[in-house]
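Figure 2 data, in text form.
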Amino acid sequence: MSTTAERPAAPSPADRDRSRESVDQPLRAEVRLLGGLLGRVLTEAGGPELLHDVERLRALSIEAYASNDPEAFAEAEALVESFDVERAEQVARAFTVYFHLANLAEEHHRVRVLRERAAQPDPKDDSLAGAVARLTGEVGEREARRRLEGLRFHPVFTAHPTEARRRAVASSIRRVSDLLSRREGAHEGALPTVELDRRLLEEIDTLWRTTPLRTTRPTPLDEVRTAMSIFDQTVFEVVPRVYRLLDDVLLGDGAGVGTAQAPSFVRYGSWIGGDRDGNPYVTAEITEQAVGIQAEHILLGLERAASRIGRTLTQSSDDTPPDAALVDLSERQSRLAPEIVSLIGIRAPHEPHRRVLLVVAERIAATRTGDDRLAYPSPEALLDDLRIIQGSLRSGGAARSANGELQHLIWQVETFGFHLAELEVRQHSKVHRDALAEVRAGGELGAQALEVLEVFRAIKRLQQRYGVRASRRYIVSFTQSAEDLANVFELAAAALGSAADAPVLDVIPLFETFADLDASTGILDGLIALEPVQARLAATGRKLEVMLGYSDSSKDVGPVSATLALNAAQRRIADWAERNDIELTLFHGRGGALGRGGGPANEAVLAQPPGSVDGRFKLTEQGEVIFARYGDQAIAARHLEQMAAATLLASSPSNEERNRAAAVDFADLGARLDRVSRERFFALVKADGFAPWYAQVTPMEELGQLALGSRPARRGLSVESLEDLRAIPWVFSWTQARINLTGWFGLGTALAEVGDTALLRDAYERWPLFAAMIDNVEMSLAKTDERIARRYLELGDRDDLAQLVLDEMALTREWVVRAAGRELLEGRPVLRRTVHLRSPYVDALSLLQLRALRSVRATVEPEAADPDRRLLLLTVNGVAAGLQNTG
């Protein structure tokens, strides 16, 4: 299959030339290589006719995109209609595989760029070094160090079903990636390029022949295991490397010799196996199993690391004598495990540090297998032993060994404990109300109430087995009153027999709708008046967490009003926390798509209201976002570094003053944008018949048949209502239709009503929240396509609603360009290049999806539509791979 690297698509010949010049040569070469190999695979698998059909559609799509020629577009549509179902499926799979390979090439190119950037660091960039330098310049070294000590970045992995790839497909892609890396780094003695190319052909052929569709929905435990691959391959190794970056900055010339200064500032959380809101498959038993799987992975990782490092501590007792604390630890180990100590002692009779750490590794293994005789009672006990070894190495003169890999292991234990990521439980407030009503009635409990109570017993068992850190956060969806939070404590007491026997719980309100955000501080007043909460505040130093829902607020009032409402709620909650002497952490429920709070996360951190970050930032990371940010170690390290730097700088005096001044200066503008955009959004979604029309013009109903994730797309209502539709399919379906409505609808009318270009450009320059919103909408619009959108809108029977959408799309595009003072993505050349190169290929898949959608809906007998339904679902995978941030 050929590639667009040779002839990049763009709206005009001039743009086409600029795009060609901007594509870096290594990326062009890799895309050309992978595209050529895919072409060979297609020819071998389907004959030259298959490759010919793929190439014809590719060429027509590029021509239609580059020239905006209606005839070329119509010819592409006619070609798609001429395919039989089998050929259409083959072509769809070909474009999907191409996107997987193109994504891979771009990932490799990002790694190359990061390597080049690391070789020439810029103290003004968004690195940790730059953040420390800027913060120190503003607040002084002592205050900067104090803030570093409190730094916390807390990502929470969730299993929301926007990662459309099967695990088998993801594994195949990773094998291709490994071969590509070996090919790039080939040197004398390595496999010759011709052999690597043969292996690449083999893997691409496997990728082509691996069905991209799951035959069954993944279970919650399948989702847990998928996330574990990211922890095993990337996160475990990357986290201490990021700490080391900071430590090197803090220690300067003493790096590697002096005592580590960098705090372990990352903590991971997970909802996978704990989020039961609307997911009947997440039970108390599943939650316990999920933590067990996580513990198995982290303890195995720690065991292997301790064994590996222990084997390197070959310093003899003559050159590096043990101190008294190490001698005492060694004696305690001998009493605890004489046979193991004796066996290890035979191999290392005069290497005390090696001997002691290898015994530590054996005790970690015993912790994993459940051998209570040797198991560590807690991560803190393990840390005590590691610090004794470290201190002895220092006192013996082996400072570099003390502060090298051993320090990495200490950081890993501090970060991950014995549980890897804290499993957070989430449940809907209504479920609690219903269960509590049954409990209070005193009769026989129903299945749902019994399950609610069993969850609290499971949390108690997890805390006893792995420590309180393993699972203590309990999130209440759709919190609408303090009573919704009090109910959790009453249920926990009922489950365990008394409040004293209940598990330790930090109950977290989740404010999702516009009304709930508006009422948040009043609800929080009621929360801190609860006796169990007062006890937790006293125990934690008055720490409290509040979660904000981006998805449902956007579906509730539209993207513009939701953005402004979330910002206003954060200001109010931050002021409330300061008045009540609360150390606040705001938990941001951001998805991958722009309609769910997506976009560059580090830019979003810097746009937060004054006082709302204070060195702590917590957010959800889900679906394709997890693999995009953590699939490669270099990219994962860059993500963690950027987020830590932004979290550190968000509360700097200059950044807070900028946000504070802008909030005052542009308050009237914000109020007008809120009012007008919401009216425009309501004109669409509250129109009579909108819900069934929406189901007609997007593949929303059909997406429910795709086995993406374990959780149902709906909580139960029919297509006549959007109230119960989850935000994920709401966003995903508009994205598949190439309309991306959830990311921009209403903004164009609001900007046009303001009508003052100078004011808007001033706001874009000085108001970070507005700039982030414009930049996100700019990205969303760049991935829309009016020609494709029209075809989807024609599936409905409401020309008035279709025209409303198209008019708003054009108006938003016009006014975003005016506000930013440039063409779409002109200031982001890398993203612009990527969008221009990908769009024609996505267009081809969209045409195939439209053909399938029409056929499915026109077929009377359900079984007869199965081939077209399969084609439809294949194109969903392909469009998701092409557009990337889809849900």
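Caption note: The chain has 39 helices and nine strands.
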